[in-house]
């Protein structure tokens, strides 16, 4: 059982404070939803957690199983079991997707496997998330559709088997079939690896699919409400306005 | 055994020659003054006569040298010659004095950082000495003679051009500096006056040499030097892949280099010419490379310009027969403050249905400068010509610069000439993404760099690609890569 703890996190972006004291705690196997209107700081929180150089943590801390990982290098955080699926991942046309996937697989499986085994593994997972195999030979996200990008992010999550995964809008721009596949992936990894999640989303649908445990509402840099799925229902019916009125 | 050395000394002050050339770019130095400075440097008619005499050359070669000297003084200094060249202290040229002097050197004389570099690359001891310029002839004598025997059996001629001048004087007269005349530019003329050593290769009709011929192992000391001349003639329907140089860092004894490569591919012949230049960082490198392709012949240039401080390399193919084709793949690396890599391929379409493709990839970091100057020329009468140019720059930091000067001259309406140019800066976000996948900063950086040149790496023999890979990683390491 692992715990990811975020305490009183303050984050500045280009001199402007965007997060003003965010606190929450996720345990292994839990699925937390992070909701909130545009510009409330959700993506900032995800990037700051992973240590993006533009997002400066000015106060507060991130701890994983008691270890303070606030200021660790990004790759070190990843090695300790954190994972971020980007909302809109950047194209890296010079690096082949297959090269990246093999490197990830190698790191996780300790390169005990032969090249052909690794390639077979990668292909199987690609198939499971419904990603066209020809994409593996392209540059990373080079000419990928929105849905293909999301599936590729989930594919990498399944390869890397993190302790905690932050998924930034895994459901936006994805069709119904895609949404199902992504939700299945999330559930599968929870069942097999006891992964804990923070899912950033605007929609209740994905949360219903994965059966989320907790819902937090972020507004103007702080969490103004936390609760169960009833909070997601409220947002679905009345919009953020309703929640902000009653909690803000 | 160390050969007895002559005490006679012909020495030229290359600094003076270079500085006078740079000053001649401007009005501060007129023709007469330039001549005076050149004579002062030691480069005179009688020096040239002396060289030719020592080499026991035929009369026509002496005339070629003298004509070249004359042209060197007459031709204006090219305006692409950067003034900063004058600030580098280049070694004097010592001609034909102590041919075996290298063998008396010891391992300890190789700078520590280069020795460490070799260790990290995992280069065997015997090769290290070779690379460091300690042994003139590679120690693996059996490899050397096996390959040579194999080639001889098939009728391939391979020898220093000096020997070829004695054995095949008429043949040499037909080809030597015919495709790259001394009148081309100032430093081609200087080469014509001072050339020495190199290699001459002739591949007979229909002979296909399937394994790449590595000049590095086979030619031995003939490849060393400052003004070496490479001349390859591939007769009808033949094939040769010649690899010049070596991807491991090489310590150069001389810091001014002005070599020349001439390739002749006759009907249906194919020559692939691969150069990996990774000399120590105190070298100025002019390399004059030109090929001609007869009917349905093919020329492929693959060039990795990694080392040296200043480098000027423009592989050129003249497509002079119908259906001739050519590809040029060039990678340049400018990896430090003041490093200057000037490159660019040139394709001259002089016959119908000729095809060319240029891919130029520049990598810069640590304040390096990369410059691309390319030319696509479609002559009148070259109907149905197709040309494609892609030139990409990757800059790993803000200090680094890249410039592109493509040039097209198209005189036929139906020519299909396409040009693509992209500039990439390795972005913080790309690096962040890769680090989010558990890849450390250095590893992520080299992934981006190697990915960028992937289409050229694919063209290299496996061992070269592997070594290049390691060298680039080490370069990135050494400079601490990006902040």
What's a concise summary of this model?
The complex is a heterodimer of chains A (248) and B (483). Chain A has helices spanning 42-50, 74-79, 97-109, 115-128, 146-160, 176-193, 204-210, 229-247, and strands at 3-13, 16-27, 31-35, 55-64, 67-68, 82-85, 92-96, 139-140, 164-168, 196-200, 214-219, 222-227.
What does this protein structure show overall?
The complex is a heterodimer of chains A (248) and B (483). Chain A has 248 residues and is α/β, with parallel strands linked by helices. Chain A has a domain at 3-90 and 163-247: P-loop containing nucleotide triphosphate hydrolases (Rossmann fold). Chain A has eight helices and twelve strands. Chain A has a six-stranded mixed β-sheet with strand order 6-9-10-3-11-12, with helices on both faces. In chain A, strands 2-1-4-5 form a four-stranded antiparallel β-sheet. In chain A, strands 7-8 form a two-stranded antiparallel ribbon. In chain A, strand 1 and strand 2 (16-27) form a beta hairpin. In chain B, helix 1 (14-23) runs antiparallel to helix 2, helix 3 runs antiparallel to helix 4 and helix 8 packs across helix 9. Chain B starts with 9 loop residues before the first strand and ends in a 5-residue tail after the last helix. Chain B has two domains: 10-102, no CATH class; 112-425, no CATH class. Chain B is an alpha/beta fold and 483 residues long.
By secondary-structure content and strand pairing, the structural class of chain B works out as alpha/beta
As residue ranges, the low-confidence spans of chain A are: none
Q: Output the radius of gyration of chain A.
A: 18 Å
Across the major sheet of chain B, the strand order is 5-7-9-11-14-17-19-21
Q: What is the name of the CATH topology of the domain at 3-90 and 163-247 in chain A?
A: Rossmann fold
The run of helices and strands of chain A is EEEHEEHEEHHEHEHEHEEH
Hey, roughly how much beta strand do the residues of chain B contain? 25-35%
CATH level-four homologous superfamily name of the domain at 3-90 and 163-247 in chain A: P-loop containing nucleotide triphosphate hydrolases
User: In what range is the share of β-strand residues of chain A?
Assistant: 25-35%
- Percentage of residues in helical conformation of chain B: 25-40%
By CATH reckoning, the class of the domain at 3-90 and 163-247 in chain A would read Alpha Beta
Largest interface: A-B, 29 and 22 residues
Radius of gyration of chain B: 22 Å
Q: Looking at the chains present, what oligomeric state does this protein adopt?
A: heterodimer
What is the number of independent domains of chain B?
Answer: 2
Main sheet specs of chain B: 8 strands, parallel
How many E-type strands of chain B? Answer: 21
How far is the first residue's CA from the last residue's CA of chain B?
52 Å
Named at the architecture level, the CATH assignment of the domain at 3-90 and 163-247 in chain A is 3-Layer(aba) Sandwich
Task: Calculate the mean pLDDT score of chain A and round it.
Answer: 93
Please count the helical segments of chain A. 8
């Amino acid at each position: 059982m692992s715990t990811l703890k975020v305490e009183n996190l303050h984050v500045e972006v280009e001199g402007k404070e965007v997060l003003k004291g965010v606190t929450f705690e996720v345990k292994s196997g839990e699925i937390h939803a992070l909701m909130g209107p545009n510009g409330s700081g959700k993506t900032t929180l995800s990037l700051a957690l992973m240590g993006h150089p533009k997002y400066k943590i000015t106060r507060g801390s991130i701890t994983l199983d008691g270890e303070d990982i606030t200021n660790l290098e990004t790759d070190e955080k990843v090695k300790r079991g954190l994972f971020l699926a980007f909302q809109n991942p950047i194209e890296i046309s010079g690096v082949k997707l297959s090269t990246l996937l093999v490197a990830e697989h190698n790191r996780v499986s300790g390169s005990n496997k032969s090249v052909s085994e690794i390639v077979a593994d990668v292909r199987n997972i690609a198939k499971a998330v419904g990603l066209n195999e020809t994409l593996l030979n392209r540059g990373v996200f080079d000419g990928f559709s929105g849905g293909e990008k999301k599936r590729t992010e989930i594919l990498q999550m399944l390869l890397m088997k993190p302790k905690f995964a932050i998924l930034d809008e895994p459901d936006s721009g994805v069709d119904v079939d895609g949404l199902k596949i992504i939700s299945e992936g999330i559930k599968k990894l929870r069942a097999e690896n006891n992964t804990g999640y923070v899912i950033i989303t605007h929609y209740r649908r994905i949360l219903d699919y994965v059966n989320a445990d907790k819902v937090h509402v972020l507004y103007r840099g702080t969490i103004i409400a936390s609760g169960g799925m009833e909070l997601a229902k409220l947002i679905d019916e009345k919009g953020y306005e309703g929640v902000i009125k009653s909690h803000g | 055994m160390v050969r007895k050395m002559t005490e006679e000394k012909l020495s030229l002050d290359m600094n003076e020659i270079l500085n006078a050339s740079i000053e001649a770019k401007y009005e501060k130095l007129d023709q007469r003054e330039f001549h005076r400075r050149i004579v002062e440097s030691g480069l005179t008619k009688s020096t040239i006569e002396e060289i030719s005499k020592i080499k026991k050359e035929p009369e026509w070669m002496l005339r070629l040298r003298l004509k070249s000297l004359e042209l060197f003084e007459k031709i204006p200094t090219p305006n692409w010659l950067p003034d900063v060249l004058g600030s580098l202290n280049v070694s004097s040229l010592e001609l034909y004095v102590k041919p075996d002097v290298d063998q008396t050197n010891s391992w300890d004389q190789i700078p520590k950082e280069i020795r460490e570099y070799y260790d990290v690359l995992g280069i065997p001891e015997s090769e290290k000495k070779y690379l460091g310029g300690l042994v003139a002839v590679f120690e693996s004598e059996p490899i050397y003679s096996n390959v040579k025997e194999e080639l001889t059996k098939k009728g391939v001629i391979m020898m220093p051009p000096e020997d070829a001048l004695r054995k095949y004087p008429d043949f040499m007269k037909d080809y030597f500096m015919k495709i790259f005349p001394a009148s081309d530019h100032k430093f081609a003329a200087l080469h014509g006056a001072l050339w020495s050593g190199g290699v001459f290769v002739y591949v007979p009709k229909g002979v296909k040499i399937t394994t790449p011929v590595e000049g590095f192992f086979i030619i031995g000391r003939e490849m060393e030097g400052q003004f070496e001349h490479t001349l390859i003639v591939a007769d009808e329907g033949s094939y040769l892949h010649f690899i010049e140089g070596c991807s491991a860092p090489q310590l150069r004894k001389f810091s001014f280099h002005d070599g020349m490569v001439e390739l002749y591919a006759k009907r249906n012949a194919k020559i692939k010419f691969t150069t990996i230049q990774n000399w120590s960082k105190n070298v100025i490198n002019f390399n004059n490379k030109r090929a001609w392709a007869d009917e349905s012949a093919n020329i492929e240039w693959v060039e990795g310009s990694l080392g040296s401080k200043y480098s000027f390399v423009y592989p050129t193919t003249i497509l002079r027969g119908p259906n001739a084709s050519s590809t040029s793949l060039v990678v340049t690396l400018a990896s430090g403050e003041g490093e200057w890599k000037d490159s660019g391929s040139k394709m001259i379409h002089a016959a119908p249905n000729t095809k060319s493709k240029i891919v130029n990839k520049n990598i810069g970091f640590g304040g390096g400068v990369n410059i691309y100057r390319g030319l696509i020329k479609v002559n009148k009468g070259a109907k149905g010509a197709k040309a494609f140019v892609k030139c990409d720059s990757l800059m790993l930091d803000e200090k680094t610069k890249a410039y592109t000067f493509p040039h097209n001259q198209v005189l036929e309406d139906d020519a299909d000439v396409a040009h693509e140019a992209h500039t990439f800066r390795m972005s913080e976000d790309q690096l962040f993404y890769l680090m989010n996948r558990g890849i450390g900063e250095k590893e992520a950086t080299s992934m981006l760099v190697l990915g960028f040149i992937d289409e050229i790496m694919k063209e290299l023999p496996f061992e070269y690609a592997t070594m290049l890979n390691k060298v680039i990683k080490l370069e990135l390491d050494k400079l601490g890569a990006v902040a």
